[in-house]
Amino acid sequence: MRAVLVIVILLAAPVPGYTASTVSIADSLAARVEPLFAAGAYDSILALLPGYLLEAESRGDSILLGRALTQRGRVLLMKGMRERAIVDLDAGVGIAEAMADTAGLMPALNFRGFAYGGAGAWDDAMRCYQRRLDLALLVRSPLDEAWARTSIAYVQQQRGHEDEARKNYRRAIALFRAAQRPRLELTPLIGLGRVESAAGNEREAIRCYQRAWVVAREVGDRVNEMWATNNLGSLEESSGDIGRAAEYQRRAYEIARELAYPHGIVIPAINLARRATELGDFAGADAILRETRELCVSQSEPESIDIVDFAIANLRLAEGRYQEAAAILDRLLTPVTRLEPQYRDRAMLGYARALNASAGAEPAVAWLEHRFDAGDLTHADTRAGVALYCAFLYAEAGRTERALAFAARARALADDNGLVRLAVAARLRESICERALGRPASATASLHAAMEQLEAFRGRISSPEWREAYGQETSRLVLQASRVLLEYPDSLSAAARERTFFDTMQRVKTRTLLDRISDPRATPGALAVRNPVTLSETQAALRDGELLLDFLAGDEMSFLFVVSPGDCRLLELPGIGSPLEERVDLFRRIVASPDPVGRAQYPPERIAPMQRALGHEVLGAAAGLIEAARCVFVSPDGFYSRIPFGILMPGDAPLMAGRDVILMPSASLLVLDRARGRTHCEDAGRLVAIGAGADARLPGARDEVNGLARHYRNVDRVPVIPGGEALADLLTPCDVLHVAAHALVVDRSPWDSGILLGTPVGGGDDALRASSDTQPPRPILSAADSLLVAREFPGDPYLRAWRIAGLPIHARLAVLAACETAGGRVTTGEGTLGITAAFLSAGVPVVVSSLWPVDDRSTERIMTSFYRRLARGTPVATALREAQLEMSRTPGGAHPFLWAGFTVVGDGTDPVPIEPRGDVRIPVLATLLLLLAAVVTVLRRRLPAGMR
């Protein structure tokens, strides 16, 4: 309380009895504070300052008191306590002015300007910074001049005066460098990087941030290390490499989290949450934002809380929780909030999305367009996004001319500001509008331009997970735009136009999986980019009697290509969100239900009409071609991936009754697989069987493995799956990998799915759940993070899909006799992501896996029958089909749940021979008979002649 009274008095006038401090004491305060400030040790500074304040009071030292108050205000600003900070800073400025302490006044003015800027009072901030510059030039203090120019440049940058800001930043850097103070270069270096980035000078911006990052790490300046790292992430994002952006943004978030720095954690947190949302990891994004908000609340940082709330609203929009999002955004858009302009712009866009969901396109576009035309939107990237969303809303409302005008505006804004991702979407939207307006030539030109730009942008993304995310984002829009190819040009025949349509859509179908398989062990930055195939190449790869069903799921409608070696037909099917999707989901839930009560309610005879109805609706138009085929490859997409195609009945019998049914992620994959041929191991026929060890929960799995070793030669039994590269070593060389263990499927983060390495400590299903659900939250997990994850989670009991995908597995066949190993996140464009895709990525050409959790004993019986046929030289797909049908004919085994879940993924048309052991019973019986005959002969010779 006494300190407050002293401050109030000092604000009015100099107090008699307070004399000038010796320079050494005041300078010792700065010497002790600066290293702590650079390390982000704000609480340590606050613990240090009371001693100086008491000493200043006891000595009657006004200058020391003023400087101590200035330092405290500076720290309180960084902790988000603006009101308390302003009291201290005003006192520091007042004391310095009263005592003519120019050395203390100059930094006090700077920190006071920072407080003004945080409140958006840029004119007041500029007056403070300019006054410091004038004083620095007057007393010839290069360091103070450099600080003043850095701060002035920041305001100039905020006002869009990049040339002036650039000059001041460069002058500041030169002054700090001349004084040999590399740590002080950090702030103007980062500022110059922002200016160069805004001006489109990407290389120069990266150079600035990289130097800042190196210097920050060398001198231990954690705060500036965080900013440099975050800004490098922003640059990578704008250049298109979302994977590298996520790595930088996560590192920046971790630093800010360690520092408990609310002003610094917000930007990396919302960036990282956005990345997690793009991958569908809503829970991870929510955890990041909630933790960040709690920190901001604890430090009383209202502006930061508003920014976090904005990010939470965007997450709610992504989750489809529109009412919650609208309520948050409505509050943020009121005048009383202090949301920064860039976030306010984005909040307007988000509010329009929520309004569209609740009230429809017309009121949403009217609300948004008004703000667009009124100039309420100030940031170029947001204006481009708003224009694109207006185009979508107008198209939804049937006002195509307006939609086209806004799509063109979005494209121009995106091109001008280097926003390639938005530019691709805008060109696709232009193509869709132009087709709807009857301008096929223009629509085709826009489509071709978009596809070229899409390929270039996609090639910049180094991480496969982010390529998948981008593929899912664009594939439906590409399908909608590509429909013009079925209508134009008139000079081509309908068949030729269909070929062009097929070829175009292969450019966006499971492209990332194709990249992974082309070079599964490439580093993320060196992923192969293989050209997708054409219809001609696909037909050349198909053999006589084979048929490809290639699905393309779209919003308005879906398409099915029925391709044989000599023919191709294009069929139209219902789109995403149609009643068909609901019927597919219901059918899948019924046949895949593990509940015995549910199976009793839906016995096979009750399911059969559903098989016929769904088979006719999906495949009825192709029934004639299917009937003539001996092997059908199915390349599903979107919700069609949830269909167990083998049991559909487009005719009188299930599809699999008379032919093999094989899942193939895309036509490109089939062509690639057949082009590269089969590679035989030197030790042909070696089988590695990995079981559940002593896990009592899977007796069937244990018996599977033991049965394989008992009935076949060259079988290596492995009770527990080894982790990482040890698995690859174990599998070199081998022909067949059999895995009978628990599997974990994580839909929201499919590459986090995995196979249980061993029973977790404690055992039981509860331990299994705990091992996955209680892991510390990871914002994003990518293959590039393998070493980091290995360090963070050394006890992880699962072999994760992302790790499997990076292993060199040379097996010709992987049999995953575990629960739901063919499951995962079903996507539009990028296929089903998860464990099966991981083995394909690792180089295994054929995978047998399950679409749903199958009964343990049923699995054992099917596997026994499957391997018996495989040993006879039966092709993989035929062996599995015959084993499934055999199971369906056994007593109690007719329900599809027990056998229809298994599927072959990849080209399973060839045999993978394994060598059976001979039946030991026959030679043993023969030996016994010979011994018995010998004994009888000896006994007969010893008997008297009359008794023989």
**Could you name the CATH topology of the largest domain?**
Rossmann fold
In helices, the fraction of residues equals 55-70%
Low-confidence regions: 1-22, 520-529, 760-794
Instruction: Tell me the major beta sheet.
Output: 11 strands, mixed
CATH class of the largest domain: Alpha Beta
What would you call the quaternary organization? single chain
Envelope shape: elongated
**Total E-strand runs:** 16
Helical run tally: 41
Radius of gyration over alpha carbons?
Answer: 35 Å
Structural class designation = alpha/beta
Strand content: 5-15%
Compute the average pLDDT: 82
**CATH architecture annotation of the largest domain:** 3-Layer(aba) Sandwich
What is the total number of structural domains? Answer: 7
- Distance from N terminus to C terminus (CA atoms, Å) equals 128 Å
Strand order, main sheet: write it out: 3-2-1-4-5-16-15-12-8-6-7
